[in-house]
Every structure is written in structure tokens, then in C-alpha cells.
Design brief:
2 copies of one chain form a homodimer. By secondary structure, the first copy, chain A, is of the alpha/beta class. Helices cover about 45% and strands about 15% of the residues of chain A. The first copy, chain A, has 10 helices and 8 strands. In chain A, α2 (about 35-45) links the parallel β2 and β3. In chain A, α9 packs antiparallel against α10. Chain A is elongated. The termini of chain A are far apart. At the A-B interface, α5, α6, α7, α8 and α9 of A face α5, α6, α7, α8 and α9 of B.
Chain lengths: ~260, ~260
């Protein structure tokens, strides 16, 4: 059973995880960060020590590396506990990157977008767990279940696919919101007008598959409206191209 | 003041509007539809008569034409009340299409996606109102305010821009959800995993402008992850192109 955790990283993910684990009764031993001030801020919140990489103790049950993807490889070589498990929290890095750290390695990936300023109820956040052996997996699942009701065993290949899907569903959707925002602003309107529709679109897919939930001029092949929209976008050639491209993609995917 | 309403159309929009107006104390006189059965179903719900276009009375205070865009033009010539206001509920049709009907014409556009099966609280739905004179506008605003707290005066040009923005924010986002769904299915995963992230992405923009809310590999110019994603999409050339296109659009719009 995991009773003590060391954090490498003091960014958004570490911030939310450390606080939730502390609240679940886990001992947060130390917060290690290049940015000592960030480490200290978080350490204060969870009653831990702020340390540098050299000062990291080697006796915690779990080491959570919650830092930028490309930094994980660099740091991995310096996290070598006696017996503890070492995990990272990344969507796109394979488990093998941590081989150098320990015989017990894994992934502890919370599938959500985090900002320090915004509280998020971790209970509904999907945790994607992977371990290089079954006892590690069991320990990680047990730990994740203390802070979330949505714990899933996901291997590295699946996690990469999940991360790609998240880019479409979230980053690309958000880009569409941004374009809508710009178009409305240029007509003296505000994005607020679309909030109810955006919310409904996002929640509808919980009961209707998105393919069946599609509406609008593209799927109706309403060429008159499509042409009007293309004309309206004449001052935004990039968005005009994007409009044509996505319209075609919607139509093709429903052929 | 509008006390009596006739509906032309018995589809999704008519269904929700008629029931809400009835509940607000408005007399729903009649429901007119090519599909007599649909008209009868709705008429029963709101204690109205089901009629054909020829049987339409000419004394209602308001005639709401809630039918497909291209049918509005065809029907308009047959709706000629004595004094009543005539409106349509379309996002993309100008007000002038109704000139033939009456001296008092307008638009009564609820900006939401409706399905008969799914109840929607109209209170938060933005109603976009336009009238060809101020007394008509006043009457329509008064009526809309009985069923919604979100009533807006929007002219035809703005409404067209709003409709275009809605295509980006909703139809195109939904297409991104669909692609995510397909990618997950092909890895034995379910879209459920992304629900919390999709919800958070949709609600985050109520407090942070979408341009500032953007995250992910595109805006980070994380070429390694982008290249990995492009490789993962090798069996889906359409989605691979879309990925490249939207990634570039995100990067350009943040230059």
C-alpha cells in the first residue's frame, strides 16, 4: 500500500494531485522543483518539505514525476529510490522512459486540463493507470481510487491514442470556439450568446454518439448556406479554408 | 401585447416553443403542418387545433413559421393575417423574406439545438429578436421574455454572422468529438473517458477567452508530439490532413 509520496514537479498537475492525495490521508514527503519558490508554495499547502533533486530521499513508497514531457527523460536518471514505485503523469510519454529509475514503474495520468487558479473536483477525472507489473498496477489503482471514481487501466499505446483523441476533442474544439469568438467580436456580438449552445453540444454526446448528433449546413448539404458562409469569411482566408475543409470532412465522414 | 399564436410547422423548434409559450399563459390557437399527424401530436399537447395551410385563421396576434429554411420562402406567400405579426425562427434567413406576409414582420430565433426527445430549459436559451418596426420588436421582446431570461435584439446581418459562428463552435466541435470517438473505438477505448475534459473545455471559456485557454501540442509547438500524432493517423488520411490543417491554424492565430 502506498502511504508516502514524493513529488518531482510543482506545476499545475502536481499542485492538484498533491493536495488531493494529502486530503485522502497520504503523507506527502517532499516537493522537488527547479523552481524552489514553487516547490515551497506547494510544500506549505501539503505540509511537506521543499527539496532539490539532490536532496530527494530514497524511501518514499511512490515518486510522481509531474513535469513537462521533454524534461521527464532528463530527470528520470536522477530518481532512483530503494524500493519505491516511480510514475510520470504524461499522456504522450511511454512507460519505458522510466526503466532507468526502478523495477517498479508506471503511469499516473489524470486526463484533465489543470490550472492552479481553478479548483477541479478530481472525483470525476479519469485516471489512466499503467504499471510494469501487476503489483505496481494494483498499488497505483488503489491510490488513484482514493481521489477519483474514474480509474482506468490503459496501456502506453492506448494512452497515446487517447492523447491524440483529446487533441481533437479539446484543443481543436477550443480553436473552433476561438474562431467563433473572433467572428462575433467583429460584428459587435459576444461569445456569451453561444455558451448555452456550446454547453448543450458538449453534453449531448453523453447520450447521443457525436456522429448521430451532427446538425447544421454541412451534414444537410445545404449548399446555399455553405456558400453564404464562405462569402462571409472572405476577409479571413485561413478560416475560410478551414470552413471548407471541415465541411468536406463532415460530409465525407457521413457518406 | 401578444395573446394568441399560430404555429406553421410542428418540428423540433415548434415543439419546444409552443409548449413553453402555452405554459407562459399564451393561447396557442392552431398548429399547421404538411404532416397532419405531427400537427395533431403537438396540438394535443398545447390544447390547439391541427390545421392545414388553407385552414389557417387570420386573427392571431402572432404567426410563428418554424420550418426548414428553404420552405420558408414557399410558405410565406400563404400566411397573410389581418393585423398579426409574422416571424420565422431561422438563423440564416433575412427578415425581408417575410415582407409578403404582413406589415409587421420579424425574427424569433432561439439559438439552441433542439430534439423532441430531449427537454431543454428555455430560460437560458438566447432568443435573437428582430422586427421591421419598433412596436413589433417590442411585442416580440415582451413575448420572448416570458419564456427566456436571455433575450437579444439582433439584426439580420448580425444573425448571419452568429449562425456562422455557431457552425464553428458547435457543428465543427461536434465533428472533432466524432473523430475522437472513432480514434478511441479503434483502440478499444470509449469516448466516456473524454467527457470530463470535453465538459471542462466547454465551460472554461465562460471565464477565460478561448484564445487564452488554448493548450496542447500545437500551441506549444511540440513538434515531436505533433509528428507522432500525424504518424498515428496514417490509416486516416482525411483526419491526418485535418490534424495538420487545424494545428497550423492554431499556430497562425497565435503568431
Amino acid at each position: 500500500m502506498i502511504r508516502s509520496v514524493s513529488f518531482i514537479g510543482a506545476g499545475n498537475v502536481a499542485w492538484h494531485l498533491a493536495k488531493a492525495l494529502k486530503q485522502a490521508g497520504i503523507n506527502i514527503v517532499e516537493i522537488c522543483s527547479q523552481h524552489l519558490q514553487s516547490a515551497q508554495e506547494l510544500a506549505t499547502q501539503v505540509n511537506a518539505k521543499a527539496v532539490t533533486l539532490n536532496e530527494l530521499n530514497n524511501k518514499s513508497d511512490l515518486y510522481i514525476i509531474a513535469i513537462a514531457d521533454d524534461a521527464i527523460v532528463k530527470v528520470a536518471g536522477q530518481v532512483k529510490p530503494k524500493n519505491g514505485i516511480v510514475v510520470h503523469t504524461s499522456g504522450s510519454i511511454g512507460i519505458d522512459t522510466l526503466k532507468i529509475c526502478s523495477n517498479n514503474i508506471g503511469v499516473f495520468y489524470p486526463l484533465q486540463t489543470f490550472s492552479k487558479q481553478k479548483n477541479i473536483d478530481l472525483k470525476s477525472v479519469p485516471f489512466c493507470i499503467e504499471g510494469n507489473n501487476s503489483s505496481t498496477e494494483k498499488s497505483l489503482i488503489e491510490l488513484a481510487s482514493k481521489i477519483s471514481n474514474n480509474v482506468n487501466l490503459i496501456n502506453s499505446n492506448q494512452r497515446k491514442q487517447l492523447h491524440l483523441a483529446a487533441v481533437f476533442a479539446c484543443n481543436f474544439s477550443n480553436h473552433c470556439y476561438q474562431i467563433a469568438d473572433e467572428l462575433l467580436n467583429s460584428s459587435g456580438l459576444k461569445l456569451d450568446l453561444l455558451f448555452p449552445l456550446i454547453k448543450e453540444t458538449a453534453s449531448k454526446i453523453e447520450t447521443v454518439a457525436p456522429k448521430n448528433a451532427q446538425t447544421g449546413p454541412a451534414i444537410r448539404h445545404d449548399e446555399k448556406v455553405i456558400q453564404e458562409h464562405i462569402n462571409l469569411l472572405k476577409d479571413h482566408p485561413d478560416y475560410q479554408n478551414l470552413y471548407k475543409f471541415v465541411t468536406q470532412s463532415i460530409q465525407k465522414s457521413h457518406e
